[in-house]
Amino acid sequence: MSCFRAKIVFSLKKIYTMKSKIEWFVIKQVRKKRKGKKMSQAELSFRLDVSSGFVGQVESKKCAAKYNINHLNKLAEILNCSIREFFPDSFLK
After folding, report:
1. Phi and psi dihedrals of 70, rounded to 5?
2. DSSP secondary structure string, 14-53?
3. Any idea what the Cα angle at residue 75 is, between residues 47 and 71, rounded to 5°?
4. N or C end of the chain: which has fewer CB within 10 A?
C-alpha cells in the first residue's frame, strides 16, 4: 500500500471511530457507576444482553461502538440510577 493511500485509510478510520465530547462524557459516567458497583465490563455486557466485549469496545478509544438510548435506559436499571445521571447538567462545548 502506498504511503498516500495508507494515510487516507488511517484518516477515514480515525474519523469513523471518533466519539464526540457528549458521547465520551456519557461513557465516562457509565464507567464510573460500573466501577463503583465493582462490576466488570464482561458482567455489565452480560446483564445488558450484548456481546461479551461490547462494554470494552464502547470504553475504548480505538472502537466506534457507542451506547444508544435503549442501552442507557437498561444501564440505568442495571446500575440502579436515573438515566439523567449519565448526562451533564448543561451543554458541552
Report:
1. -70, -40
2. HHHH---HHHHHHHHHHHHHHHHTT--HHHHHHHHTS-TT
3. 90
4. C
Q: Which residue ranges in the chain fall short of pLDDT 50?
A: 1-4, 6
Residue carrying C-alpha cell 457507542: 66
- Per DSSP, 67 falls in state -
66 neighbors 55 (Cβ within 8 angstroms): no
Beta carbons within 8 Å of 79's beta carbon, 6+ residues apart: 30, 33, 34, 37
Of 4, 9, 18, which Cα lies nearest the Cα of 66? 18
pLDDT digits (tens, 9 = 90+) for 38-53: 999 999 999 999 999 9
